[in-house]
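Hey L., structure's done. Input below.
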Amino acid sequence: MTKLLITGGAGFIGSNFVHYTLKNRPEYDITVIDKLTYAGNTDSLSDVLDKINFVKGDICDQKLIDKLIGETDIVVHFAAESHNDNSLRDPWPFIQSNLVGTATILEAIRKHGKRLHHISTDEVYGDLEIDDPAKFTETTPYNPSSPYSSTKAGTDLLVKAWVRSFGINATISNCSNNYGPYQHIEKFIPRQITNILSGISPKLYGTGEQVRDWIHVDDHNSAVHTIIDKGKSGELYLIGANGEQNNKYIIETILELMGRDKNAYEHVNDRPGHDQRYAIDSTKLRTQLGWKPKYTNLRKGLLATIDWYREHENWWKAQKTKVEAAYAKKGQ
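Output:
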């Protein structure tokens, strides 16, 4: 069996990647490392912990990372601090985890000659005007706008430098906004769903005109496996499913799908420096590697996500009061 190390495998996308891999790629022997900060939750892996090797640890721990990577074949690097609002309050954890942690992994990859796939974000490109027909491509210049996106841009550049300078075998993917099961309820879609389930009014930043390019997490993870299988070392691939919609549409659709008046939400203070529009052109991934998404109907994907949060209240309920209290302090 091929040994696969997944960093951040107890987080949102990482835990879904674990589930997806176990279901669809039985040839992999999986080890997960996760620091279990507030965004990492072993409950997201509770039904598969007997099928994987789980290590609680920090990707900045050089000795531990060297040992784990020395024992594996492929590393998929999800681990990151990833919340824009948190990065605006305190950038330091983002610098430490995203930059120092990635550098630690890269050095172990170089030492042991292993394969790396690095997970990044479309936020490294900054944003587009709402009425701009353009989309991000692999050649779009980086223009990050927050401490979070700046540190993710830095991780991409570190990977590219280690490929060029040291010849490591690595690929990068930059993905649009993921949604689906196991996403922390501080994030936009699960926050609105769990608000409604808790009898709280959903909250919309500003006018809600900001556009995001939504992709179901399973589609993202199927693309990652396609890149691992077929991707060329040193190449960057953009992952998107043509799911552009503004936040107002998303919140109104969630309300409608949950049987509520689509206007039953509150406008709250906008996020400082809120990016206006993200849009991914995934032509390279589709044409060169033959990938295509499964969830092409956003309404159906949102309905499946609503059903998951409704059926897994025990996964999120204990966090709800704390999350809403934190947002209330900011008037959001």
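The CA atoms of residues 57 and 191 lie 28 Å apart. The two ends are 48 Å apart (CA to CA).

-- N.
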